[in-house]
Amino acid sequence: MPETVKDVTTAEWQAAVLGSTKPVAVDFWHEQCIWCKRLEPDYASVAAEKSSKMTFYKLHVFREAETARRYGVQGTPTIKFFCGGREIHEIVGYRPKAALSREIDMVLGNYADCLKSSSPVGGG
Questions:
Q1: What mean pLDDT, rounded, does the chain reach?
Q2: What pLDDT sits at residue 124?
Q3: Distance between first and last Cα of the chain
Q4: CB of 85 within 8 A of CB of 124?
C-alpha cells in the first residue's frame, strides 16, 4: 500500500479524520472480503492521483469494530467521505477506478460548499 493510503485506528480517528483540514476518504475493509481486495489497487491509484486534495485512510472493520459500528458500516467495502468532521457521502460496494475517481471528484467539487455550511464537530 503506498504512503498515500494510511491505516487509521479508533484511537487516531478524532484527530486524523474528524480533525482534518482536508476532505477525508476512509475505506472500511477486511482481508476476507474479495471485493475489498479488488478495490484496493484502484483506491490506492486514485489516492496517489488525488492525495494533494484529499486524505485517504483504510480502517479494518474487525480490529476497529467500535468505529465501524459507530458509522453504520454493514458491508464491505464501504468508503465514507468526511468534511469538517462530518460524514458527507458514502460508497457501498466495489467501484472500478474510473467510477471511484468520478465520485471522489464529485465530493471534492462539493467540498467548498460543505465547509461554508458546516461547523467542526464539537465546535458548538
A1: 90
A2: 39
A3: 37
A4: no
Sheet order of strands, 86-92 included? 5-7, 55-60, 24-29, 78-83, 86-92
pLDDT digits (tens, 9 = 90+) for 28-81: 999 999 999 999 999 999 999 999 999 999 999 999 999 999 999 999 999 999
Contact 79, 26 (CB under 8 A): yes
Helix axes 34-50, 97-117, angle to 10 degrees: 60
Q: Are 89 and 107 within 8 A, CB to CB?
A: yes
The amino acid at residue 34 is: I
- Positions annotated as catalytic residues are 33, 36
1 and 48 in contact (C-beta within 8 Å)? Answer: no
pTM metric for this prediction: 0.89
3-state class (DSSP) for residue 7: strand
SS3 82: strand
What's the CATH fold of domain 5-117?
A: Glutaredoxin (3.40.30)
91: how many CB neighbours lie within 10 A of its CB? 19
